[in-house]
Design goal:
By secondary structure, the chain is α+β, with helices and mostly antiparallel strands. It folds into 3 domains: 1-38, no CATH class; 40-118, Immunoglobulin-like (Sandwich); 127-160. Helices cover 18% and strands 40% of the residues. It has 2 helices and 11 strands; from the N terminus they run E-E-E-H-E-E-E-E-E-E-E-E-H.
Length: 176
């Protein structure tokens, strides 16, 4: 008999082809075995995330046990049973599922967790490539400036013209 934490690999020849069969023996709690108690069989419960920026810390609490990671996986070991889990919120992301239950039933369990980046109001590109209403304010300011410039030019042109001649008026006499 193999020790509880060993992996057994068996090669079988089937119809001229070699087939590899790998059996995984579940792990047992060595402390319980040393005490003579029946050791509970445990299985891995792995949470795999997608969507977070590389190196972002995330946390899962399975039952009452929290675990954190900056990689894409967080793993626990538990005996058969149903366990509630909570995925802690990460700033700038929504998570799905944020809570739930996993059922360990004589085999390892994998749970996928998806993170989606949240776009913040005002941070998106708006009119003229600026955030929020800023582009409209810039356009309004430009229109006011152009209008003021055109009014100044018109004023200067009107003042530079000679006054119109009055009908029937004679120019002043010369020299005398």
């Amino acid at each position: 008999m193999l020790p509880a934490a060993c992996f057994a690999a068996v090669l079988l020849a089937v119809g001229g082809a070699t087939v590899a069969s790998v059996g995984v023996t579940p792990s047992h709690d060595a402390r319980a075995s040393a005490a003579g108690d029946a050791a509970p069989v445990t299985y891995s419960v792995t949470f795999t995330e997608s969507g977070l920026a590389t190196g972002t810390k995330w946390t899962v609490t399975l039952g009452s046990t929290p675990a954190s990671s900056t990689t894409t996986t967080i793993a626990f070991t538990d005996a058969n049973g149903s366990y509630s889990f909570t995925v802690t919120a990460v700033a700038g992301y929504t998570v799905s599922p944020a809570t739930g239950t996993v059922k360990v039933a004589g085999a390892p369990v994998e749970k996928l967790v998806g993170f989606t980046a949240v776009s913040h109001p005002g941070s998106s590109t708006g009119f003229l490539g600026l955030s929020g209403n800023t582009g409209y304010y810039v356009l309004g300011g430009l229109l006011v400036a152009v209008g003021a410039f055109l009014a100044a030019v018109a004023f200067i042109l009107v003042r530079r013209r000679p006054p119109p001649k009055k009908p029937g008026s004679q120019p002043p006499p010369k020299g005398g």
